[in-house]
User: Fold this.
Amino acid sequence: MEEDKTNSENPLKVNRRHFFSQLSVGIGSLALGSLLIPDLFKGGPKPLASQPLGIPHFAPKAKRVIYLFQSGAPSQLESFDYKPTLTKRMGEDLPESIRNGQRLTGMTAGQDKFPLMPSAAKFAQHGKSGAWVSEFFPHIAKIADEICIVRSMHTEAINHDPAITFFQTGSQQSGRPSMGSWMSYGLGSENQNLPSFVVLTSRGKGNSQGLYSKLWSSGFLDSKHQGVLLRSGKDPVLYLNDPDGISRSDKRHLLDHVSSLNKIHHVETGDDEIESRIAQYEMAYRMQMSVPDVMDIKKEPESIIKLYGEDSQVPGTYAANCLQARRLAENGVRFIQLYHQGWDQHGNLPNEMAGQAKDVDQASAALILDLKQRGMLEDTLVIWGGEFGRTNYCQGNFDPKNYGRDHHPRAFSIWMAGGGIKPGITYGETDEFGYNIVKNPVHINDFHATIMNNLGLDHEQLIYKYQGRRFRLTDVAGNVVKDILT
Amino acid sequence: MKQKLSIGIILVGLVALLFAFKSGLFKSSGDEYADQKLPKVVDYNFHIKPILSDNCYTCHGPDANKRKAGLRLDLEKEALSELPENPGKYAIVAGKPSNSLLYQHVVSDDPKQLMPPPDSQLALNSYEKKLLKKWIEQGAKFDKHWAFIPPKKAELPTSERTDWAQNEIDAFIMEKLEENDLAPSEKAGQHTLIRRMALDLTGLPPNADQVQRYLSNSSVDILELAIDEFLASPTYGERMTQVWLDVARYADSHGYQDDSYRSMWPWRDWVIHAFNNNMPYDEFLRVQLAGDLMPNASKEQILATGFNRNHPITQEGGVIQEEYQSYYVVDRTNTLGKGILGLTLECAKCHDHKYDQLSQRDYYEIYSFFNNVDEKGLRMDAVQAANQKYFADAPFMTITDEETQGVLSFINKDEGKDVKVMVMNDSMPRTTYIFNRGEYDSPGEEVTPNAPEIILPFSENLPKNRLGLAQWVTDENNPLTARVFVNRIWGMLFGNGLVETSEDFGVQGSLPSHPQLLDWIAKDFMEHDWDIKYLLKKIMLSATYQQSSIATEESKKVDPDNKWLSRAPRFRMSGEIIRDYVLATSGLLNKEIGGPSVKPYQPPGLWEETNAGGNRGVLTTYVADEGDKLYRRSLYTLWKRTLPPPSMSIFDAPNRDICEVRRQKTNTPLQALALQNDVQMLEAARVLAENTITDTKDAEQWVTTVFQRILVRNPKEEEKKVLEEYYTDALDKFLNDKENAEKLIAQGEYKRLDTDPAKTAALMLTAQVIYNLDETITKE
Assistant:
């Protein structure tokens, strides 16, 4: 039993033991092959790592999350929330009864008028479900029956930093763990050779807002749950590449000597942390192969490249990141967080947003189709959305061809697909001005509770005690949005 | 196959069981607690309050809004009174558990009666129930929370063993060791001690000359001499400052989304200066909290108040001024709590504290001390600020050449360039209100400056401003300030504080492992005028500190976490110390003190990939410095909050958005990669190899020399054999492969010495083996 356990669950352990048993024979006899795990990239589900927390509270519908975060806040009025009234009442001042005390950002607080501005993008209904999607997103329109559009998201934050921090950590202020870290903490890793939470970034040409490492920080959770930034250059993980002049076998030889000296010191000091250090060096050594392999999208066939679009061949683009996200998902990464910057259209919205949409439309839809054709959509939860919405009135000069919209926290749209989310529905409703929610509001806490639910986690039970307080991703609120579950 | 399957099921079952244990599902089953011995006298603070706080206070504690059934258990008078909703009944009747509803509910079999309610996920175990019963039987005596009672020096415990203790500290440690049937370890070797002391006091390895002098001197007080020498070195101030920067959330950028540059570094230079001059800790705090309000405040005193301007400041156009201005005041309040008083004050920002006797009113009374700064939520956005080369938000002070040649001579400023540093003032008095639910736009009752009475009443004689607050904080009767600081110093030396939660001395924080020792040191520290160097020396001269860190099987079994200190700790150094260690041992270290922060090597593209656009402020692209600026100590590395130096954050450095007093000590594959492949590490190995080859004629000695340089000791025969074999193999390879030898030794900017490439490459890799040893990055 013991033997079986180590083989199936923790190959590292058996290898390390094997390694130590060989030490007495002499490090020269240690073969490279014995330290590598066979079938490293076989894909498909692997046994859970043996962490006490790595067990869901109830049967999960999703095993992993791909979160396509649209940083800067795309306008719901030019994407998924169709409001013909704005066309009819174009230029009229937003009625005070609708605004109803909503605080304004410093950018529009000084405006003496709030003229209603209709969408420059045309809308049509798509799919059997008849979902309204704007012409900016033709590919997403085609998968309307695969996705669930939520038009009734709301938040309290009206500025980027607190709003995005709220979405990613459940709190507007810094210091809490990211949702990816919570999932890693709650569910553990599916692949011993890759981190359980990874981050990929890209940027469009639109007005952008910064990203911060705190968004993927593990906060007070153990740092092993921290998101690992995967980058498009030659060093996909920081310091991953060996220097020029060193071969793989040179590195193996070097590590063997490090390990044998560490082992001697372990015997002398009795400190078991040294054993752990040796194990981490072995994991690092394996990552040097597993990460570039997963990141190497050159292996993808022509049909896939066509599906995601030509951009998918350009490292660092959103399309390339979407394709990479699928490869990471296949390899057991638990939480894959993408950020695409450039959605902050305070001005020049029609042009900029069309460009941003072009960056992400095809690849976002392709990811859904690709996951589906591999049978992975059912257990992969995909989320698309930004940190808040945008105002129904115009910011700056009133020009229907070239207008801007300020931040709007009270109502905005996101979509989700797969992983236990009902496909082909539109959930929630805003008033005819697209300003206030009139039906089925979904708060960020509810959104978090729902994602956790689909991963098999009870958001009220996944708790971490820190500074004497029991913390949750959903703090003291949150209700699972049952209506959108399969 | 079938067998495999059933094994699998058993395994899943076992893991699930383990999980269930962890999550407390079986907490009340009792078995594992049945054998635990009850203390003779049950102590309220140490035994009872942790149970009540963790399980009951949420509904029956200090938070008036959430209190149920009118029952309050954290105050003696109320806990012992008749239950308002249950006349004639009492939660606690001293001496009579059977009449005490608290106890009856806790042991009830009826889920409707059981407390805490089953749906709270909380439950008492059998041991805790027995403790409660015994406490009630013994008279249900309450006491003030231990950390709110001013420390006193207890009589030194005596032990039959007289050959070990070196000072008072050891008496307290020995008492606990004996209680736990443990014995102290023998004294560590002289090499180990000298390296340990150098790392603790200077954050650097001892240099070869020091080691030689100390080892060749057999005088009994040689360790004391060594300590004195380390304390007198200017590197001491740098070491202490490094730690304070986390507390002070120091950074060279404003934070938030644009995260542009700010010039706070002269404040950092002041901290180094203060530590090196051994400014007493009470004064160190007073000037940082209120230097500007002191009579005839000097420039130096004003500069010190930069402490409270180190918080992030937004440069995001469009924010609401009042909202952010209130964030800044909140930050100062929380920093005072976590960093100085060891209290989670922030818990009382939105509601009365659920565990500690701190009300929302208390919170805003402290808040009001910090609410009079002539500041704005947003002064300029990042683009405007960058265009105007505006790196400090008002209020600020300007430092000129005249001052750096005079009163502020400790500031390492380029001549001819004035520097602006943000500081505090009180020139915009504001009325402070309690914010309902903590929201800035929801003001409630008005409050005036005051400090929580439960800690220490704010004397009528004190001015009701930050100066008064600073005096209150450093009053010898303040029960927290000295304890919190000596505990952190203890944590710096031993890896863990005597109170493990060094950020929380409140009811939910951990209890001190050695309460009398903590109090003794805190009191002794105050009696010696808050003298930090004295404190360090006192601890380091104890036998406890000077023990060996070797862990025997026996001591690991009895005390796996080394709570009782039967051995010295052994733990990984911080990212800063690791980098400095490598710079120092390779000979690259640039010892210049202070000045504007520098940009050493950093993997390319990190800032560029995440910034808010190329024109947003001056920290959007990373251009590394050149020459000897690359090799400054790590505390001078430019700190950008949204993307801190990766070679520090990979080793658990916080991002400095908020005050932090404790770092994790993780062990991860990313650390292994950084130590192997960071160009700084590779360059150091190369330069050390070159220097060794140049300086040491006898090639037979090279491997040993490199080893000595890095580990400050001689290699053992076995180690020497492994390394020499490795060097010979590598040399063979590179002699046949000059091309790769040349490539390898091209690492880093530092000028190549004229040494043979193959030998250099082989010795460089040998140095890399040693740099990657656990021992190298560990304080033993």
